[in-house]
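Lab meeting minutes (informal)
Scribe: AK
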Amino acid sequence: MITWRAGVVVSLGATWPGAAEVTVELEAPVGTATAGDAVRALAFPELVGSPEIGDRVLLNVSALARGLGTGGYALVIALPDRPRADPPEGPGHLVKARYTPLQAMVLGVDDQESPHHELLRDADDLGGLPVVVADLHSALPAIVAGARYAAARAGRPAPRVAYVMTDGGALPAWFSRTVAGLRSAGWIEACVTTGQSFGGDLEAVTVHTGLLAARHVVGADLVVVAQGPGNLGTGTRWGFSGVAAGEAVNATGTLGGRPVASLRVSGADQRERHLGVSHHSLTAYGRVALAPADVVVPTFDPGPLEELGRRVVAQAAALGARHRLVTVPADEELVRALEGSPVRLSTMGRGLVDDPAAFLAAAAAGVHARDLVG
């Protein structure tokens, strides 16, 4: 299940909050790499310590062995000759990535030892808080861009946004350069990691407590819920980690929030099941989501996206039996708002120029959510 290799750190690369890139010279071959080849590796210093040049490291190279993505990284499991020092004693007994060799103990926002425990112990209501749900992590910056655009258009301050990260993709929030960049730019106020995911500004046991923390601890005006980067799909209707988007709609509705469903749209995907509205959105919102949501349908200007727009409207119509369909113009002004993103826009390897519909659909959901903010 795990392909192990060892190597020596030969250079240090980029760092961002919670993560450090290194280049490692392999001691043995794996995949297309031979012994002595250098590979990119990623370390999470909070888990394994900070590698330095000359350190011997143990690596998980399973993704490299299979030619999978995972950002193209080997993952540093340990520095066997220089293990990380014991963490300082402190409160917290939430265990994330439970019963794996790298399980981590954290202080949960809803933990009995948390200063927020009393606040959250009986918390049960989001008070109509708008919550945008998306199935892909790549939708996050576009949603926030749309919300900020709508606020500026109305002459209102930018919304205070919390990102609630589910555990369908990457478990460490540190893996996401998007989260780091949005936090640095002030576009999101906090990241709340839920379920088995960890590394956020706040840790929560479930999506429900994550949403309540976003409302009552972060004081968010608007929340975005999505899995971390690196979703899992099998080419089947139900075998996709983003199906949990429907459960996030249910959690929001149960807690008295205002669910806003962001459609996964593409005009460039070569797979028929993802062209226009992805079949994953139709499954998550049409079959899994039992609570009614505002499903945001982007409408495109006449031009290159016009035919795609008609397809999107026709496909989304099936969701109207359970949800409220809301049309939002996805025009050139919204494109310019997306161009101002402080982080790179990329979905399935495609950027804004390659697949504008993908980001415009997410941004349109952000526009509508901001319009719901009191």
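Next up, CB showed the second protein from the same session:
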Amino acid sequence: MSEPEFLISVMDRRDDWCTIICLIGGGQEINTGEAGLVEWFDVLKKRFEHWNVYHSKQLTNKNYSWGEDLKSKLTGLNIEEKTALHLDVSIRSFRAEKLSDFIGAIIDGNAARAKTLNNYLADYPILITRDLNKARQWLRQNARGTERIGLVASSGAIRLKPEGLNIKASIDPVNWFLNDKDDIRSSYYLEDVATEFDIQGLELDWVCMCWDANLRKEEKGWGHYNFSGTKWQNVNDPYRKIYLSNAYRVLLTRARQAMVIFIPKGDKSDFTRNPKFYDDTYKFLLSCGIKSL
């Protein structure tokens, strides 16, 4: 039984009435079994046609629809559109209401739109560097008082290990998020990396997002890869591609005040870290209006 089916089935036992309020973030699904609105509508159609359903007018947005025709799933249900149900102003980054749109344009591979949206981020610095130590120094210099800093990276960023970032070394989220500057386990030390599974739903003030070759810019768009054994392998499953893109979307929206993106230079002597894997991504992000540190 899926999570939506379980929740609705529990509330459906009531003899009088009840309301379920679902806050569903578009593009936030990062793990197998997460299917957003699609699963909710499938369950309503299958078992709970007697419920009244109110939704925003975002059913054609690909971040919610996953390429499916959501409106067709509503046939026969008691449906009413309420435009006000769409919460379209991000409050995670108080300096940048347009941040989520900007990151969305990057994930969509739309450099022109990203560059336009970047003009709205004057109070929210986003920089890019090929030098991790430079990124660390920038975070330490800019954070004030108890403002929190930290490193984040994709759970599939296996080849960041030569840079000293081992994403397989799991963190203790409590220590990482809450401990003070004098604790080497805390995010302040800029040694341990939090992945999308550690940080989803949480934020830091200043973030260094470390980008690996599992999501890389290519001639036809974004290339999705998984490191298996000794080499990178193409991700062909459409759902796994979505999960990977969403992982980067989550990681790129974790900073409340500012962010620096670190992209390695690669190594010509290491076929798993071919400089081209990283250079094209770096050039693309520059074309989106992100300035070099």
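CB comment: The chain has two domains: 3-85, 99-292.
No objections, moving on.
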